[in-house]
Amino acid sequence: MAVRDAKTQRLLADLFAIDAQLVPDTGFALRRVLGEEIAAAAEREPAKAVRALRPYMVVQASSAALAAIGLAGAADRVVETAERIDAAVVLQAGGTAFGHDRLSELATLAEAIRMRRPGLRVHVQRERHFLVQAAVIAGAAVWVGTSLHGRIAAISMRVPAVSLKNPKVKATVETWESELLPYEVAWDGLGEAVAAATAIPSAALEGLAARLEEKVVSGLERVRALAAAKAGDAGEAVSAGPDEAMLFSLAEENRHLREQNIRLLAELDAARRTTPLRARIGRRLLPPIRRATTWRRAAFLRALVRSLVRR
């Protein structure tokens, strides 16, 4: 078993006596494995339209993070930050995970930003395919958000990343990074954090990304070797190279998340359609009726009628 941060590794050891291998998230090797595909995606819509906005900052935020400050407050912080680094704003969701963030909220945030600064260029990037998202991040001056994989993708693409508060991000940063890039940032400190991140030399970003890529490769080799030893046939178990293993891991994760999204949405739609019309109407109309004073005063009469009917 392999885990991506030291906190999870310690918990597994303490609670279940599991000796898990510590391996960085395979997303750190995104550019190494899929660099050509990402470059091709950047030349096609919708990534091409976003590229015309450069310089731009990519902003992503979970529903919880937006609720904590409110859309108006978030708009104020984003406007201040964009003006500070003289960049357009590209709002992009964090992927396909159900409940992660919502495009509808980002669209509302975009309108709030436009109201505050009509001249500021704001764009909502709606495509959730990971190659398009990676291409958009690759062209950014900075990435800002709550998503762990958004940060990982930015580092892989050698783009400065600033993470709002998220315990998963904190655990990963404190396991693998040199704390070069800001994390656990509060909304009020966003402008300063972005200014600091964009001032980091490109050589430092290159060093961080390259080091994490190598750790991914060596970690995958170690896990494959352990799997081969357990299988008892090293020749067959390690037939795939590290790049192929990383590509499979990334593609499989994207496929799984999309399937989960489709399944959950289908279940919600089916539940809505199969709920009887009478029950749906009752849920809307009965609560206000039952709260009415006249309804409470008539409780004795309703009880009397029910007793007479039973007879």
Descriptive overview:
By secondary structure, the protein is of the alpha/beta class. It folds into two domains: 2-211, Glycogen Phosphorylase B (Rossmann fold); 276-310. 65% of the residues lie in helices and 8% in strands. The chain has 16 helices and seven strands. It has helices at 6-16, 30-42, 47-51, 63-69, 71-85, 103-116, 130-138, 148-156, 167-176, 190-198, 202-231, 234-237, 242-274, 277-291, 293-297, 299-310; strands at 2-3, 21-22, 56-59, 88-92, 122-125, 142-145, 161-163. The chain has a five-stranded parallel beta sheet, sandwiched between helices. Helix 5 (71-85) runs parallel beside helix 10. The chain is globular. The model is unreliable at 234-238 (pLDDT under 50).
Comma- or semicolon-separated keywords:
311 residues; alpha/beta; Rossmann fold; 2 domains; five-stranded parallel sheet; two-stranded parallel ribbon; 16 helices; 65% helix; globular
Would you tell me the overall average pLDDT? Answer: 82
Rough shape?
Answer: globular
The end-to-end distance, rounded to whole angstroms, is 68 Å
Helix content: 55-70%
Given this structure, which CATH class of the largest domain is correct? Alpha Beta
- Predict the CATH topology of the largest domain: Rossmann fold
Strand order of the largest sheet: 5-4-3-6-7
* Name of the CATH superfamily of the largest domain: Glycogen Phosphorylase B
The DSSP helix count reads 16
Q: What is the CATH-assigned architecture of the largest domain?
A: 3-Layer(aba) Sandwich
SSE sequence, one letter per element: EHEHHEHHEHEHEHEHHHHHHHH
Cα-based radius of gyration, to the nearest Å: 25 Å
Low-confidence segments: 234-238
Main sheet characteristics: 5 strands, parallel
Can you count the beta strands? 7
Q: Which structural class should the secondary elements be placed in? A: alpha/beta
